[in-house]
Specification:
binds adenosine-5'-triphosphate, binds magnesium ion, globular, disordered C terminus, four-stranded antiparallel beta sheet, alpha/beta, six-stranded mixed beta sheet, single chain, about 280 residues
């Protein structure tokens, strides 16, 4: 197996207004792994994804495919990680759908033939070939979401980071998206409240609560740990874990097991004196 694609160590981030969004996040993703990022509203999922390409920068470290994220590497990293934003309006700015999807390859300096074939293939992938000449801002939300995914696919990144990709899609669009994510060869990180999508697409589910990673599970284990998805309950569960309680959460597992249980390193961190439920 090659070099790990994502290595995040003790990442902390506070927004300028004082809102502490990440409180010491560490995780690794291997090449080709598909990882779901789940957790309540405000848990820190979008903030974390924005850190992967340096749109936001916190303390701690982010390493992408062997490159430490810093001012010198940020451009290269952005060509390797395709981030699909939670709001497609943040991603689409060109006069036509085709221009938006061709924008990435164009700025990679590729030959015209290659730009066109990549843009066409990416639009076909998301079922939007017939929309190439439309104005992005006149599309429906679901159509915009699909085009936003195409703008990233056309760059052929090694890692795809998608923020709520199924939100706003109709049932057929959602089914197509799931099929697409399943067949893509890239390493995938997908932040989503759509637990069924996570179960169908991902090998692993990282659960965030109040700016921390509180569990690293197999997607099929999510239903039995549903409490972690509610901010008040997650705080209680994690506090209980820090005190050695919460027998339902991996109590029989051995330290060092990460998947399928609350990680013991999380226990140590929570037990180290910071209440997961505190607010900044
Ligand atoms: N621009 C901002 N300025 C200040 N605080 C912010 C900003 N964006 C997010 N936050 C705060 O940071 C925390 C994490 O937000 P984030 O958007 O990362 O959560 P999330 O897990 O993606 O939530 P959701 O499921 O609603 O998308 C929240 O407390 C949120 O209020
Ligand atoms: Mg979000």
């Amino acid at each position: 197996m090659g070099q790990e694609h994502v290595v995040v160590e003790n990442l902390r981030f506070t927004y300028p207004d004082g809102q502490q969004a990440l409180r010491g996040v560490s995780f690794r993703v291997a090449p080709g792994e598909k990882v779901g990022l789940v957790g309540h509203n405000g848990a820190g999922k979008s903030t974390l994804l924005l850190q992967l390409i340096g749109i936001l920068r916190g303390q701690g470290s982010v390493r992408i495919a062997g490159l430490d994220l810093d001012d010198r590497t940020v451009r290269r990293i952005r060509s390797q990680v395709g981030l699909v934003f939670q709001d497609p309006n943040d991603q689409l700015f060109s006069p036509t759908v085709f221009d938006d999807v061709a924008f990435g390859p164009l700025h990679m300096g590729l030959p015209v033939d290659e730009i066109v074939s990549r843009a066409e293939a990416a639009l076909a992938c998301v079922g939007m070939s017939d929309y190439a000449d439309r104005m992005p801002h006149h599309l429906s939300l679901g159509e915009k979401k699909r085009v936003a995914i195409a703008t990233v696919l056309s760059m052929d990144p090694i890692i795809l980071a998608l923020d709520e990709p199924s939100a706003g899609l109709d049932p057929q669009g959602r089914r197509d998206l799931i099929a697409l994510l399943r067949r893509l060869p890239q390493t995938i990180l997908v932040a989503s409240h759509d637990l069924d999508l996570v179960r169908q697409v991902c090998d692993r589910a990282i659960v965030m609560a109040v700016g921390r990673i509180v569990a690293d599970l197999l997607p099929d284990e999510l239903p039995e740990h549903e409490a972690l998805l509610y901010p008040q309950d997650a705080s209680r569960e994690v506090s209980a874990l820090a005190q050695g309680a919460a027998p339902s959460l991996g109590a029989t597992r051995q330290p060092g097991h990460v998947r399928g249980s609350i990680s013991y390193s999380t226990r140590a961190k929570v037990g180290g004196g910071t209440d997961v439920g505190e607010t900044a």
